[in-house]
Design a protein that fits this description.
It contains 2 helices and 7 strands, in the order βββββββαα. It is mainly beta. Strands 1, 2, 3, 4, 5, 6 and 7 form a 7-stranded mixed beta sheet that branches. It starts with 11 loop residues before the first strand and ends with a helix.
């Protein structure tokens, strides 16, 4: 007799594409250089955003301990932000500080 296995449930759920864009101010960077704000009392991670920036983002997932968003536009830029020398920065995100002045990276 075979035993049926239940599918493993994930700890987060992907949100629907119809989520409206929202604005938030980035409070800090995590250990990987990802911009962090608050959403419903939990950390909201937005790659490509810097501390002090007001950004427009779309919520992509909500987990039990944190949420994640996709950066749509920087509304108010941080003074440390510079023009990126990389043409694929927004699709790669391998260098989170490439658009930040060198002195601010230290």
């Amino acid at each position: 007799m075979t035993e049926k296995r239940r599918k493993k449930s994930f700890t987060h759920s992907k949100t629907e594409d119809s989520q409206p864009a929202q604005e938030v101010v980035i409070e800090s960077l995590d250990d990987d250089g990802i911009g962090t704000a608050r959403y419903r009392g939990k950390p909201l991670l937005i790659p490509g955003a810097f501390v002090g920036e007001k950004v427009l983002y779309q919520l992509e997932y909500q987990g039990h301990h944190r949420s994640g968003g996709r950066l749509l536009r920087v509304v108010s830029r941080a003074p440390e932000r510079i023009k990126s020398p990389c043409k694929i920065e927004h699709s790669c995100l391998g260098c989170p500080f490439i658009s930040m002045q060198y002195g601010a990276q230290l």
